[in-house]
Amino acid sequence: MKKYLALLLALCMVFALAACGQAAAPAQEAAPAQEAAPAEEPAATGALKIWVAEAVVDFTKEQVASFMADHPEYAGYTVSVEPVGEGDAASNMLMDVEAGADIFGFPQDQLARLVAADALIPLSDENAAIVADENDAGSVAAATMAGTVYAYPLTSDNGYFLYYDKSVISDPSTLEGIIADCEAAGKSFYYDLRSGWYMPAFFFGAGCTLTYDTDDSGAFTKCNIDYASDAGLGALKALIALHKSPAFVNGSSVSNATNAAAIIDGTWDADAAKELFGENYACAKLPTVEINGTATQLGGFGGFKLLGVKPQTDETKLALCDDLALFLSSGDVQLARYNVVFWGPSNIAAKADPAVQADEALAALGAQLAFTVPQGQYPGEYWSLSEALGDDIIAGKYDTADDAALMEALQNFQDTCISYAG
């Protein structure tokens, strides 16, 4: 009996130990479920096209590369720079906005047409404020229509002023003095009296207006003109008096000038003027001329290069376009561009740089631009009409005309200009 009890106790202990061993074994915990790693959002990608004049293609490529290196947020975009001049760029954009460049240079006289064609997107309030603060008033006005800034100014360097031989011209401040010095020295004074671009120097200086309004399609709807006025009559008489001088020669190209002591021309002929006048090379704003008994500062047209951005459907691409256009039109880049191709800056700080200030032609133009208006759009017929009026003056048709006859000529000119609109 004791044997059976001992055996029974032994078996109980075995089972108890087995049970205890089972309970002591650590439970195998299930591995926690792995959360799926969030998929990275693909970087924005795309292509951006820029049109600039051939002379600045390589320069622009270098600037774009610098900008992209500093802005990794746009790394998914490729930027190409193509040689399309300002005038051609505007024409191409007007023909096919969708196929055109995303950023493009254009002359200020195409602004209204590009806006009407929905080829330009207005600047953001922030960028518009930067443009207004950092650029000269003329270029800002050229980039603005109906109170809205549509483009980034690039230059303030298209206009005309006076080149002269300082060994002949003692005082370039008055046209009467310049003509007297030229006549005394047997030298010539060049001015393109036949040109609808140069002729307004006298009329605008006298206070006259000649501009055109356009509708959304770019069609001319109204001509704002007051040439048939006392101011216009005085300007016409001053032109007639100029043509009568034996020193007067019609023209505006230094390269074609001979025996010249003074010529009204632009910055594009600065090198030719330096060669013509040598050590006597000098520049000045346009002179005053006596109109209706008063010394009157000659005015005229001013021209500016602008950089536009076309509307975009992709917000990131639009941000890139705006950031890049602001950079390419910045003071630092304008100054760098001047140092490479001598485009005159519109940026106030860049214009104050010693190298720009030392450029006599740009300094003279800068002084003159204060008396000019940005050239807008004009019908093709206007240029021919101005040429015809200039031809009549040069031919002496009005040399002995009285005020009534001169006013009739101005009224005919004014009525014809008006007929081109509407």
Summarize the structure.
This protein is α/β, with parallel strands linked by helices and 422 residues long. It has helices at residues 2-24, 57-70, 86-95, 111-116, 125-134, 137-142, 175-185, 200-206, 230-244, 270-277, 315-328, 331-341, 348-351, 354-357, 360-369, 380-394, 403-419, and strands spanning 46-52, 77-83, 103-107, 144-145, 148-149, 152-153, 161-165, 188-191, 210-214, 220-225, 248-250, 260-265, 281-284, 288-291, 294-297, 301-302, 305-309, 373-374.
Name some characteristics of this structure.
single chain; 422 residues; alpha/beta; D-Maltodextrin-Binding Protein, domain 2; 2 domains; five-stranded mixed β-sheet
CATH 4th-level superfamily of the largest domain = Periplasmic binding protein-like II
Query: How many DSSP E strands?
Result: 18
Structural class: alpha/beta
Q: What's the CATH architecture name of the largest domain?
A: 3-Layer(aba) Sandwich
Based on CA atoms alone, the radius of gyration comes out at 36 Å
User: What spatial form do the alpha-carbon principal axes imply?
Assistant: globular
Low-confidence segments, given as residue ranges, are 1-33
User: How many DSSP H or I helices?
Assistant: 17
Strand content: 15-25%
Stated plainly, the CATH topology of the largest domain is called D-Maltodextrin-Binding Protein, domain 2
Helix content: 40-55%
Mean pLDDT score = 90
Sheet with the most strands?
A: 5 strands, mixed
CATH class assignment of the largest domain: Alpha Beta
Trace the largest sheet across and list its strands. Answer: 2-1-3-17-6
- What separation lies between the terminal Cα atoms? 134 Å
Number of separate domains: 2
